[in-house]
Amino acid sequence: MPFPFKHLILGFSVMFGLGFSLPVYGQNDCEAGFTYTISSCNFVNFLPDSVNSSWTYTWDFGDSSESTETSPGHFFISYGTGTAIFTVTLTVSGPDCDENSTTQIVMVDQVPDPSTIDVSGNNFIRCTAGALVIQNTSTTQSTNTNYLIEWGTAPNGNSMGSWEGANFTTLSKNYNLPGQYEIVVTVTGSNGCISSQAYPFILSATPAIGANQASAFPVCIPGESILNINGVANNTPNTTYLIQANDGSLPIVLNHPPPSSVAVLFDSTSCGTISVINNQTYNDAFQISITAQTGCPNQTATSAVGPVRTNTVPVADFEIIPESPACENEIFTFNNTSESGLFWDSGFDMCLGNMGVIWSISPISGYTITSGSLTDSTGFSAIFVPGTYTITLVVENNITGDPNDYDPYCDSDTISKSICVLPIPEAGFNLSDAFGCYPHTVDATNTSNTLSSCESADYTWLLEFAGSECSNGGSWSFIDMTNASSVNPHFQFDSAGVYNITLITENICGIDTSFSSVIIANVPLSSIMPLDTFCDMTNIMPMLEFINSCNDTIPPIFTGSSQAGTLLREQVPIPACFATQIIPTRSRNTPSR
Questions:
Q1: Would you say 323 and 313 are in contact if contact means Cβ atoms under 8 Å apart?
Q2: Reduced to 3 states, what is the DSSP secondary structure of residue 199?
Q3: Using one digit for the tens of pLDDT, what is the confidence trace for 445-467?
Q4: What is the strand order of the sheet 367-372 is part of?
Q5: What pTM did the predictor assign?
Q6: DSSP assignment of 473-497, as one string?
């Protein structure tokens, strides 16, 4: 595994170790036992007792490092000439068993410490050609028996040589060719174990930098301009790159090597910004600069690209006067309150704020435009027949107003609003049966022109008893869970008379009434004047004494009969005469009296 400065621990002792475990498992526990072998002083190979491709293996080596390999190998680092103990834990989990862990103690040989520092304090970086001086800082110097210093390979491929000895305090090496070198320090301990550590060394130089725009077209914000980076292949690894636009945004910082291209985000307009790029002035433009720097004095390089023009999208909006809902034949005015965009036009070489508009109305019929037009940038006015309408406004950056002369870099913006146009109320209703004998039910069907309006109207039903031929009071009620505010109420009448029904239909556009009457009659009642008593055959002339038929629009029919059968059935005369004894019968389904 990697270590700081490519720390590699190598061992050459003859020691060989074998470890094993005797875990105890529950009935559904995953098998977590493992064995290990030690080689090269401190390198250990681990092998689980059971290998299953669906299981997960997590190794904790007890030195703040872990592995999820099934059978890992691991260097245990402990400096000295003795032994070191580490607690290793294997945790196994799987879909077919419960998570389980096993822990073992692993003992390895210690290794010598290969630590070395750059005497200059610059962490193995030199800004100019000259000598690198290193110092031996090994904590095991008293037991180290040999040092091998390999000075690395130059960028041209030539070896920089090596130094070997039993001990050293400081060593120096001259470097003249800028680039990166890998210095390797290898130390042998008295126990025969060997350890090595690599130190990257950089001889810095002034970096190179090149850049260009991937596209010179304007950017619609928020949007990105792509910066291509080139000419950096030979820069030293300590080079960093600072990308900065002059729009007030934060810089982008990259380490070496940088990507071949970078997206620079813009979210503000370039209109009003002046940029100087390569001694040329650009109005209404941003620029992007990229600076390569090593951290060493006077080792910087900068490249600037541009101009970058950024356009803004117009924001569509409009106001409606009067506010919806409103009434038929009332003039609606639609005022464009959109926020215009800003865009750079190459023909005028400046930023423009012209806006093209397109209005539309859905449905396409039912209205008349009274002023303006559907292409008027300020708006238009219209009257509408009752209904619901959707007004849509599309705005775009436009140089001349010609629909074909639009800004190709920014999309248009669209907004839609709905209006409700109400009719002037016209009340009306029909009655299911305006005449009948009590008890009598009547259903009212509302036919007002507001029933299908986009906003409900208010309905009020009034019922007035107008009088009766029988001089009795009126009696009526709403039935079937209807009431005076129902759209289609139901009435029941329980006494004779004339009843006036009024419907009041009201909305914000006005009020209207409709009137109709219901006539409720009672059944006709009649009686015969008393007859003289006789014991033999005789002629009689019965006379009707009383007839009552309130509010009846059809004259009553009287039917007389005797034991010999029906003798007369006609509209009742007064008096009514019969040639024999009669028995009055029912008239209008009501017993005669």
A1: no
A2: strand
A3: 999 999 999 999 999 999 999 98
A4: 318-321, 332-336, 379-384, 367-372
A5: 0.67
A6: PP-EEEETT--TT-SS-EEEE-S-E
Residue with tokens 């998570």: 99
Determine the straight-line distance between the first and last CA of the chain, rounded to whole angstroms. Answer: 123
Query: For residue 368, how many other CB atoms are within 10 A of its CB?
Result: 11
Position 542 scores a pLDDT of 62
Residue 124: strand pairing partners: none
Question: Taking the CA of residue 301 as centre, how many other CA atoms within 13 Å lie in the half-sphere pointing to its CB?
Answer: 16
Task: Tokens for 511, please give them.
Answer: 């009020």
The structure tokens listed for 17 are: 């170790």
Task: Quote the CA–CA distance of 171 and 155 in Å, as a whole number.
Answer: 22
Comparing CA positions, the residue from 319, 344, 339 lying closest to residue 396 is 339
Q: Encoding tokens for residue 556?
A: 């009553």
Beta-sheet strands, E only, within 480-542:
490-493, 497-507, 510-521, 525-528
Q: Which residues contact 435 (CB under 8 A, 6 or more apart)?
A: 518, 519, 520, 521, 553
Whether the Cβ atoms of residue 426 and residue 328 lie closer than 8 Å to each other: no
128: Cβ–Cβ under 8 A, 6 or more apart, which residues? none
Q: Are 118 and 141 in contact (CB under 8 A)?
A: no
Number of neighbouring beta carbons within 10 Å of residue 176: 9
Look-up of token digits 């007030």: 248
Instruction: Give the residues across from 118 on adjacent strands.
Output: 134
Q: Is the pLDDT of residue 180 over 80?
A: yes
Q: Please write the tens of the pLDDT for every residue from 393-421.
A: 999 998 776 667 778 889 999 999 999 99
Read off the tokens for 176. 């003249």
Q: Tokens for 310?
A: 């950024």
**DSSP 8-state symbol, 27:** T
